[in-house]
């Protein structure tokens, strides 16, 4: 709804503002939560996966505020790994519990690795029999399509979701952010909720 979209926009703006001078993902989300929690109505919250990527070294710092896990396809091992550092959603608590809970994890992204962050609109997409796509099917898609460039991966996933749900309605927004390390610099492509996927 409109209220949820407004708070999402506020949260995004606060992250941008705090990230200018803070290089810790956990500290950034702590500051964002202190501000956001004052304005959120009871029962409202925002989940977030916040990452900082060093494109020279491939080191990815990650914090999760109650979000879905980050999927990392390890090209050398031919398997995926899930990363979801401890944390609760933004807005549940005005500071003390959130600050104690939120953690930061560092992940090395090696050449050939493929990273995907997603909202639950992806895994909770339902077919005409009300069966969800689910995490395991999505993780298999990541493995099957990891050789694609990020934008082509997003396009392929969106097409797969359309085919999977058939005539069933889409119950939630879909956001995908992909990072592929090619050996020199990482290629990144996001989708925005309810928008046509575009590469940056």
Sum up the overall morphology in one term.
Answer: globular
The number of helical runs is 6
What is the rounded distance between the termini? 27 Å
Q: How many strand segments?
A: 8
Structural class: alpha+beta
Q: Which radius of gyration do the C-alpha atoms yield?
A: 17 Å
Q: Provide the residue-averaged pLDDT.
A: 89
Q: Which range does the strand content fall in?
A: 15-25%
What is the element string, with H for helices and E for strands?
HHEEEEHEEHHHEE
The largest beta-sheet arranges its strands as 4-3-6-7-8
Please summarize the sheet with the most strands.
5 strands, antiparallel
Low-confidence stretches: 194-200
Task: Explain what this protein looks like in three dimensions.
The chain is of the alpha+beta class and 200 residues long. Helices cover 34% and strands 22% of the residues. The strands form two sheets. A five-stranded antiparallel beta sheet has the order 4-3-6-7-8. Strands 1-2-5 form a three-stranded antiparallel beta sheet, covered by helices on one side. The longest helix has 18 residues, at 2-19. 28% of the residues are buried. Mean pLDDT is 89; it is low at 194-200.
In short:
By secondary structure, the protein is an alpha+beta fold. Helix content is 34%, strand content 22%.
List its traits.
6 helices, disordered C terminus, three-stranded antiparallel β-sheet, 200 residues, single chain, globular, alpha+beta, five-stranded antiparallel β-sheet
SSE layout:
Layout (H helix, E strand, L loop, with lengths): L1 H18 L5 H12 L11 E6 L5 E7 L4 E5 L4 E5 L12 H6 L3 E4 L5 E5 L1 H4 L11 H11 L4 H16 L10 E6 L4 E5 L10
Antiparallel strand pairs: 1-2, 2-5, 3-4, 3-6, 6-7, 7-8
């Amino acid at each position: 709804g409109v209220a949820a979209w407004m708070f999402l926009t506020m949260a995004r703006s606060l992250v941008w503002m705090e990230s200018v001078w803070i290089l810790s993902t956990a500290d950034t989300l702590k500051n964002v939560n202190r501000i956001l929690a004052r304005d959120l109505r009871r029962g409202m919250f925002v989940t977030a996966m916040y990452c900082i990527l060093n494109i020279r070294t491939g080191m990815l710092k990650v914090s999760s505020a109650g979000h879905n896990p980050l999927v990392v396809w390890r090209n050398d091992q031919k398997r995926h790994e899930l990363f979801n550092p401890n944390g609760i959603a933004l807005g549940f608590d005005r500071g003390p519990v959130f600050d104690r809970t939120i953690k930061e994890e560092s992940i090395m992204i090696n050449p050939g690795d493929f990273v995907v962050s997603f909202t639950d609109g992806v895994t909770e997409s339902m077919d005409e029999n009300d069966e969800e796509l689910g995490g395991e099917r999505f993780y298999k898609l990541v493995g099957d399509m990891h050789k694609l460039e990020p934008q082509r991966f997003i396009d392929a996933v969106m097409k797969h979701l359309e085919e999977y749900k058939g005539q069933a309605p889409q119950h939630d927004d879909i956001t995908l952010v992909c990072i592929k390390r090619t050996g020199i610099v990482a290629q990144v492509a996001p989708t925005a909720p309810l928008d046509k996927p575009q590469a940056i």
